[in-house]
Amino acid sequence: MAGQWLKARQTRYAAYSGIYILVVLVAVVVANVLADRYDKSWDMTKNKQYSLSQETKKIVREQKQPVTITYFNQSTRFGQGKSLLDEYKNLSPRVRIKYVDPDKDPQLAREDGVHNLNTAVVQVGTRKEVASSFNELGITGAIIRDIKTSTRTVCFVSGSGEHQIDDSGRNGMSDFKSRLEQDTYQTETVDLITQAVVPPSCTVLVVAGPTHSYDQPEVNAIQKYVENGGRAMFMMDPPLQLGNDDISTNTALAAMLAGWGVTLQKDLILDLNPIGELTGLGASVALVTSYKTQPIVAGMSGSLTGFPLTRSLTVSDTAKTRVHALFDSSNTSLATTDLSSPKIKVNSPGNKKGPMALAAAGTYNTGKPNSQGRFVVVGSSTWASNSFINFNGNSDLALNSINWLASDEDLISIRPKPPLDQHITMTKAQLNLVRLTSQFLLPLLVVICGVFIWWKRR
Fold it and tell me: Do 307 and 442 fall within a single domain?
């Protein structure tokens, strides 16, 4: 009887089922133990959108002092920050994560200057810094600022029709100012007309689209500042003479830049790129999708930037400067020297075909150790104004430029990565072919196959 029972079909099936269940249970238990002990994840996105940057990993792993990241949120919402904080924790045994509910421990939140939920406070050694935002840029930026002790101030020149950082209108730069302050830069306005000296507190000087000419003393002050190791950004619009747009050629300032190897061309870029039609922009907005290898733009692959009413530049090295173009206009662009006509004359014989350099960055050899002058020149200023800074990668380019000028290259690499815009650009003929194929040829093919099968079966 026992032998027959063992040979019975139900017994064998029951044994097989029991073994399978046991194997599955063992596998589930082992998987949970390994998952609890080794926190590992894989980012399958093309641009590693959900992974910490290599720069963040390098900064955290090289820290010799203990790093404590305190996360303030309600107890029931601690899970909102856990995945990001765990990534930092896994980088180094020196990183410690603390979770604090400010409702239960308001005294600690008050001591650390925390006023909002979902906020992180980073402490490196004895220095503390509130992260400007709860993401990689905010947390790693706080770590960097804990390491660096100096205050950084971005000074915007005023007095000659430049964009103003306190202006919230379309032509103002209040959004740019807000983004700089999120990176914990201080901002202020300086007047070089009444006192032709760049204040020593300025880490970076910004000349944002002057419409009137700078007097020679102002230019001399800027030149002396950079050639003594200062950092400056120049956004120089083309000298348009259209209605209310009466922009000076700014001869003295242009001559100074030419002496550093950046020549401002008296032209206007017209971009006939089909992408402009898809985004609803006109030919007067130059679109850029390809960038050089200079640190400001090296990580911007896949980003689209736009430059309304921009001019072209020519760049070359000089005895004391090394200059690199940042990006060029598209192959479908052209430059017109007719700056007083509102009509776009695409077929004018005087037009110059692209691509042409639209921005450049350079260094000035001061001859002193650890005292290198730096400058960035862009042939447009509207791209960084309130009306356009939110256009795709424009804000990243603006902040990257300031980061590089302030020697904060670390912040460039940890800027949040936007989802890749993997679009397909087609001509009108190609769009018609796709429409014809999808709406007529493929359905017709299905109908023909159906009729053939019906006829064969019949």
Answer: no
**Same domain (yes/no): 136, 165:** no
Q: Report the C-alpha gap between 290 and 275 in whole angstroms.
A: 13
Please report whether residue 183 resides in a domain.
Answer: yes
Write out the chain's pLDDT in tens, 458 residues: 555 555 566 676 777 788 888 888 888 888 777 766 665 565 555 555 567 877 788 888 888 889 999 999 999 999 999 989 999 999 999 999 999 999 999 999 898 888 899 999 999 988 888 888 898 878 888 887 777 766 789 999 999 999 999 999 999 999 999 989 877 789 999 999 999 999 999 999 999 999 999 999 999 999 999 999 999 999 999 999 876 778 999 999 999 999 999 999 999 999 887 666 656 678 889 999 899 999 999 988 888 899 999 999 999 999 999 999 999 999 989 999 888 876 666 677 778 998 999 999 999 999 988 889 999 999 999 999 999 999 989 999 999 999 999 988 877 766 655 554 555 656 667 777 888 888 888 888 888 888 888 888 76
User: 182: closest CA among 130, 118, 109?
Assistant: 130
State the DSSP H helix or E strand holding residue 256, giving kind and residue range, or none if neither: helix 251-259
Are 158 and 105 contained in the same domain? no
CA distance 155 to 158: 9
| Same structural domain, 319 and 188 | yes
Q: Which domain holds residue 94?
A: 54-147
Q: How many domains would you assign to the chain?
A: 4
* Helix, strand, or coil (residue 36): helix
180 and 143 belong to one structural domain? no
Q: Give the end of a domain, one of 147, 182, 215.
A: 147
Q: Is residue 160 located within the same domain as residue 141?
A: no
Q: How far is Cα 373 from Cα 225, in angstroms, rounded to an integer?
A: 8
